[in-house]
Amino acid sequence: MTKIDSLRRFLLPCITPPTNPSTVPFPGATTSSTGASKKRLSTSLRDDIDVQDSASSSASSSEATSAAASDYYNLSAVTVPQRPSKTMVIGTIFGRRKGHVWFCVQHDRLSVKPIILLELSIATSQLVHEMGSGLVRVALECPTRPELKSCLLRSVPVWTMFCNGRKLGFAARRSANEETRMMLKRLESMTVGAGVLPSGSGSGESGDSDTDEVMYMRANYEHVVGSSDSESFHLINPDANSAQELSIFLLRTSS
User: Fold this and answer.
1) For residue 59, how many C-alpha atoms fall within 13 Å in the half-sphere facing its CB?
2) Could you give the CA distance from residue 85 to residue 253 in angstroms, rounded to a whole number?
3) Judging by DSSP bridges, how do beta strands 245-253 and 135-143 pair with one another?
4) DSSP 3-state assignment of 26?
5) What's 155's DSSP letter?
6) Most CB atoms closer than 10 Å: which of 4, 32, 163, 190?
7) Gyration radius from the chain CA atoms
8) Least trusted range by pLDDT, from 3-7, 39-43, 84-88
9) Strand pairing partners for 102?
10) Which of 147, 143, 106, 103 is nearest to 121 (CA)?
11) Measuring CA to CA, how many Å separate 147 from each of 154, 189, 229, 253?
12) Would you say residue 56 lies in a domain?
């Protein structure tokens, strides 16, 4: 071995550092590790963003639920107007040919005591004439006086009467006398009908002669209670082909 070879063998390890495959990474190892680190970082960020989105979504859902609940309670707090109450009653219009009209309301045909009995100032002949037009609307009005404000509407003693828009005097609440109760007893087998009863039946008036008969019209009425200040009775016409309409209104006015 020459001297040059000996020097090369001795000096080469000093000039070139030893390579350790386990410690020195391959050229692509650093990129892979960096990529893995970047990948882990992006995954962590995505997870954080997902958690934040989930939290914000939960918060939005909670706010929406709270808003819906608030709207529901606000709607519940709104005062809903009361619906009109409707019931079926028996109504009888009667009166002497030469007298004036009475209006009687009963719960049913067997009730001897009327719900309301009104003496109207309109003459029987005039009412028959008004009914010839097919439409009759009777409005009974009373002012809201302090002494009448708290009483039931049907208990008001005196009314101002209008028929088809024209003022026709007054109407008064009456109690059924024996003659009226006898007339209702005679009509208890009838729900719907019209006719003439002999003189001395039911109207509470003294007849001048036996020819002064009592005319009557009996039918079902729809009783509508709109409020404490308004009630009405509407004739239910059994004849579908008839255009006859008859309504009686009880109104408590502010003036």
Assistant:
1) 6
2) 20
3) parallel
4) coil
5) G
6) 163
7) 48
8) 39-43
9) 94, 119
10) 103
11) 14, 40, 14, 14
12) no
Domain that residue 217 falls in: 82-199+211-253
The single-letter code of the amino acid at 174 is: R
Beta pairing partners, 119 = 102, 172
Predicted TM-score of the model (pTM): 0.63
Residues 6+ apart with CB under 8 A from 119: 100, 102, 171, 172, 173, 174, 204
The secondary element (H helix, E strand) that includes residue 123 is strand 116-123
3-state DSSP percent of the chain in helix, strand and coil, to 5: 30, 35, 35
Ramachandran angles phi, psi of 180, nearest 5°:
-65, -40
- Domain assignment present for 241: yes
Expressed in angstroms, the distance from the first to the final Cα of the chain is 141
Instruction: Tell whether 86 is covered by a domain.
Output: yes
Residue-wise pLDDT for 171-189, tens only, equals 999 999 998 898 889 898 8
Please report whether residue 7 resides in a domain: no
- DSSP state at residue 210: T
Owner of token pair 């020097």: 7
Q: Which amino acid does the sequence have at 73?
A: Y
Longest dimension (CA), the chain: 174
Nearest to 161 by CA among 153, 152, 170: 170
Distance CA 160, CA 42 (A): 89
**Residue 162 CB contacts under 8 Å (≥ 6 apart), including other chains:** 138, 139, 140, 141, 168
Number of structural domains in the chain: 1
Least confident of 53-62, 170-179, 185-194: 53-62
